[in-house]
């Protein structure tokens, strides 16, 4: 197998002038390889920041010829345990491939494979356009998108992948394919819409885009509740929006977390309702949650681009930053909230984060995004497996393990699995 020096020299001479390559001893190596989660992270001898499709092809060909594993990188928020199967590999960083080109018709846009959500949103917004992206500003567009991709506009338009018109992809052998619904590879096109991370490196994707409505306005109202409001909160959500029936203009999200500024001991529940097309949020959607009795209530209005900040998912939020922490996700999709399970989850979360303070930065996000647009697409038409589900409950076990303590990793995994099993067992 090639050494770092061999790989560096051999790949460098094949790259375009705009590309960068960093060895392990480079000042920029750590920055270029840094991930949102350090748990089970891959190991690289070289990072290649590609600037062209040719850079990707040449890097893949070299890696294959020398039996070196390689992994594509865009936003760096992927956190599946299997990533650590890549050892002494080459990272192919797509961060320079961040172009956004709107078509002459204004109905589609082509995005580079490494473009981040905020860059995509802002570029479209300047042109009076929008499309479905992830709600977190700092993830890539295609990181969530190739897995289907939940988004704030999904109630109207469907998932991120439902917007795909075509894609240009470099396969594992270095060959290039253009795929679409009209191409001669329908299986690959089907797979890219929900399982796309597994089939190649996407150089670019063309997606449907939409006009931002005239005088478009978004409003929110947010609440913070103590532990005795768990059942009351989720009962109200079930009553207002049973079985995914909320309008496409309404979004709700709750987060179970610690906030010592509000409660030094017990976890709190933060809940937000966001509505498009009115100012303020209609009382039918706020009165039940006001009547529940919150510790803190806030409200406001603004543009679509303000929503990540309201949800604390913007680029300034600590939750989204690459801080050298470990983050393990344990997602479960459900139809409605089970009140007993939500209580059990709260009690377990409070107990474990008290007994294991290293896990105190963990949180559980419950996403109640509208699903009309998602369910309008036939399930069998894409690889996305969760069109029939209404709510995503996602425990995220977050902790500092720079010392690589295997016992702490084991405790974090055990905690997350316990939470997931409570939710799953009650999901029916």
Automatic annotation (TrEMBL):
Lineage top rank: taxon: Eukaryota
Q: Which residues form the FAD-binding PCMH-type domain?
A: 39-212
Tell me the GO molecular function terms: FAD binding; oxidoreductase activity
Keyword check for Flavoprotein, yes or no: yes
What cofactors does this protein use? FAD
Q: List the keywords (alphabetical).
A: FAD, Flavoprotein, Oxidoreductase
Protein family according to the UniProt entry: Belongs to the oxygen-dependent FAD-linked oxidoreductase family.
Protein name per its UniProtKB record:
6-hydroxy-D-nicotine oxidase
Lineage, highest ranks first: Eukaryota, Fungi, Dikarya, Ascomycota, Pezizomycotina
